[in-house]
Amino acid sequence: MNNWELLMQGFSVAFTFSNAMAAFIGALLGIVVGAMPGIGAAAGVSMLLPMTFKMNPTAGIIMLAGIYYGNMYGGAYSATLLNIPGDTPAVVTALDGYQLTLKGKAGKSLATGNYASFIGGSIGIVFLTIFGPLLAEIGLKFGPAEVAALIFLALTSIGWLLGDDPVKGLVAACLGILLSTIGIDGASGNARYNFGSLNLIGGITFVPLVIGMFGFSQVLEMISDSKEFKVDGVKKLSIRESMLSWAEFKEIFWPSVRSGVLGNFIGFLPGAGATTGSFLAYILEKRIGKKRHTLGTGEITGVAVSEAANNAGAVGSFAPLLSLGIPGSSTSAVLLGGLMMWGLRPGPLLFESNPDFVWGLISSMYFGNILCLVAGMAVLPFLVSFLKISKRVMIPIIMVICLVGSYAVGNSIFDMGVMVVAGVVAFYLKKQAFPSSPVLLAFVLAPRLEVSMRQALSISQGSLWVFFEKPISAVILICTFALLLFPVIQKLIAFSKARKN
Amino acid sequence: MELAINLIIFLLAGYWCQQGLMVYSFWNKNQPGSGFIPVIFSVILMAFTLMLILKEIRKILKNRSHETRQATVLSLSDLRPLLPVVYTLAAIVVFRFAGVVVSMFLTSFVWLLCISKVRLAKSLIISVILTLMVYLIFVMWLRIPFPRSIFGF
């Protein structure tokens, strides 16, 4: 069957009542969670992950995917109305979005965000439909050496790209790898680093860890920053006043398309994700856009490029996740953990062994994206009162969800303790500018890295040349080393320039 | 604070490395052992944290007096987030003995009323709705075998 037929088959899966409902609920929950300032997609998906345990894997992942891209829509709302991005990708949206709010055009800004999100999301889904299977075909040619090299590159770029300091990003990635070594060694079957605890023989359970790192740490952050959110300058929003005129729509259309393509490409790269995509799209618009001189002063184009890029990036991160089993962002790492819990193994074979699942998910995105646009416009009149929900009320709600969710995976009180410890550690690491996403991504990827690396070395009788003999792994490793050495070279150039001056 | 965190990570990586070399074997019969990956990445981690430690020490030495004053202020505010940690640990103990319904109601209600200073009626309404949601989703729908109280829920 070709892609088109598989996609049509996927639609028949996506349009069953349970899957359509899952997409609808996911999109709605995503918008709501995304609009909550500071919670973010990874926290939203991880806290809601336990709710999908009872569902079949397809419905479960459709719902989680809906939460993810719904979150990208919702992130723009608090960025526009409060100047506090609901998630990091919406940081750029706040630049022009909040200025528009101050000018009394909050409705226009939010509607622009919705339209641009739809355009970016649609571009991302079309590209995923075309390039996802192609990437999987390339992935089929990978042996253990190539897989190990690819994961090594992913871990390096994740550590390098996330956070302000590459060294801290790499420290976080290494920490995630060490955490993943707790429990049974996948290659030999021996227990290790369990500190004599029976609870740790199976390793650290993924869901409590992720809920703690992204959900519970959020509670601690809210406590440490007691400032309340305030919706200034907007009393009421109506759909009619928010609608864009034809001229305004024309103004945002091409920049949104351009940013969508760029954001989607960035989303394909591990670690770069939606945030980098929206930043680069904004920079590109600042260079070549018609409104480049007034960008940042409250232009709907500024909101459009950021939102289109972050939505396209979010969908783009599904391509390496589904085709190679490599998550592109922390949220897709949570999704990967969810897939593994259901016994699915994302990677090149997933397209062949579970076509119903993969194409059902991709098809649901077309439907979910339309749902998000409709729901995004429908919630506009209620947004102002919704964003007035106080932090003081949100804290115990998140706390309860974290507690119940972390217990629900393994019915274990120990997991609740893991959640609390993970939250505290993530909070203090974040406070010292250590990004927490690389910890999670490395935790998810490291077991595969270890198995592939050891398989490759066993085949080659312990010779490290196995990683350089094959062209694919050699090229990947050269890229990895270049990435690792780049900060050093940069510093050397700066040093020599300073000496010259 | 940063120095302490880096030091803890450094020591942790050292422990991982020592265990990987001494207990789980790094290399065995021309093949990597269980300690192979832990040793490689713990060594990398030690190198990176050492870099950060040295950087931090240099920074502290550079502005000694200023840093000391700042560190005292920071240490007090750093302890504030521990309040929900202690509270959550207490909630877990209550959860173990009083069951999910009672504990989750108390967790939300006591926090809203005593710490968030939300009005009694509003605290009660939010807590009841939240507990009901937890009960419907996790107990009724997902059928998670939560600990139960003497009342049977």
UniProtKB/TrEMBL annotation, chain B:
Q: InterPro entries under this entry?
A: DUF1468
Keyword Membrane in annotation: yes
Coiled coil feature spans: none
Q: Which residues form the DUF1468 domain?
A: 5-147
Query: Where do the TM regions start and end?
Result: 7-27, 33-54, 85-112, 124-144
Query: Keywords, A to Z?
Result: Membrane, Transmembrane, Transmembrane helix
Recorded protein name is DUF1468 domain-containing protein
Task: Identify the species of origin.
Answer: bioreactor metagenome
